[in-house]
Write a structure and sequence with these properties.
314 residues, alpha/beta, Rossmann fold, six-stranded mixed sheet, 6 strands, disordered N terminus
């Protein structure tokens, strides 16, 4: 007999007012690592990059991602403003595999040279995955980066880690929780907006993550973009405004032997190659640059139709 008590999925009124600045956000720039770059949210709807074979064969395929989706949603909200505002000029210089030191020392100067009004910032996830990482040092770099951005008058929205899912990644939960709590403190201290993924425990569902268990599926990228809209004080799209962002997905029980097999395959296909790259000082971001280094107009999005997973079988 389950002891789980289902909590209403209706989002409560925010405890404090979050003020959007649509008229100010003319130029938006994204910095960070692979999640902000957009892995594995394929631009081509016919190409499923969530599978290992596709990731290996099409590693350079164009990707969109939650930050790009958010920029398109901001352009739509600007178009609906009174009076209407033009679409945002948008750049994305996030690079997969990068550590917080690179993001702060290389990406932030590049971003500030573009004179952003809003910076979408992520970082530290790759550091946390490495054994022996000092959270103090990661936070020190993050704060140093924030001081530089906020000194220009630019707003910042910070992507918070999601709760780790699965039997193996859950081993990083304590470290991730510590890091998330400290990021919250930084966001409060420097008056930043946040994308509070930790507040959405339903995101641990494996169906929202690629086979590598690190990068979101296209639906998960969209969920993050919708949560980010709320974080900016803007409404989520109507299809997501009915509590869908918090609702648990329909159950999909997996027999224990299948889970054991999947864990073994994941360890062989992802963990061991990751360890080998660490031993040889190789990164997936080596010799890569940001995919969209120059701000160009981001066309306004159409309202998103909502979760396909929630409505399976209807």
């Amino acid at each position: 007999m389950s002891t789980h008590t289902e909590i209403t999925t209706t989002d409560p009124e925010p405890a404090r007012r979050i003020i959007p600045h649509l008229a100010k956000w003319n130029t938006v720039v994204t910095i960070g690592d692979s999640v902000d770059e957009g892995l594995w949210d394929s631009v081509d709807p016919e190409l499923d990059l969530t599978k290992l074979e596709a990731q290996q064969e099409y590693a350079d395929a164009p990707v969109f991602g939650w930050a790009d989706r958010l920029a398109a949603h901001i352009s739509r909200h600007r178009a609906q403003a009174t009076p209407p505002l033009p679409p945002v000029d948008y750049a994305n210089i996030a690079v997969r595999g990068k550590l917080i030191k690179y993001i702060v020392e290389t990406e932030i100067p590049q971003a500030l040279a573009l004179k952003p009004d809003l910076v979408i910032m992520d970082g530290g996830g790759n550091d946390i995955l490495r054994p022996g990482t000092s959270i103090d040092q990661v936070i020190h770099y993050f704060e140093y980066g924030l001081t530089q951005i906020r000194a220009t008058g630019s707003d910042v929205i910070i992507l918070m880690p999601s709760q780790p899912g699965g039997s193996l990644l859950s081993l990083t939960r304590a470290k991730s929780a510590d890091y998330t709590a400290r990021l919250h403190s930084l966001a409060n201290r420097y008056d930043c907006y946040i994308v509070d993924l930790w507040d959405y425990p339903n995101l641990v569902d494996a169906r929202l993550w690629s086979q590598d268990r690190i990068h979101p599926t296209p639906e998960c990228h969209e969920r993050i973009a919708q949560i980010a809209l709320l974080g900016l004080g803007l409404p989520a799209d109507p299809a997501w405004a009915d509590g869908s962002l918090r609702r648990r997905l329909p159950g999909a029980l997996q027999p224990l032997p299948e889970r054991v097999h999947e864990n073994a395959e994941w360890f062989k296909s992802y963990v061991l190659p990751w360890v080998d790259r660490r031993l040889h000082g190789v990164s997936s971001g080596d010799n890569r640059a940001g995919k969209r280094p120059v701000p160009t107009p981001m066309p306004a999005s159409e309202p998103h139709p909502g979760s396909s997973l929630l409505h399976q079988g209807e």
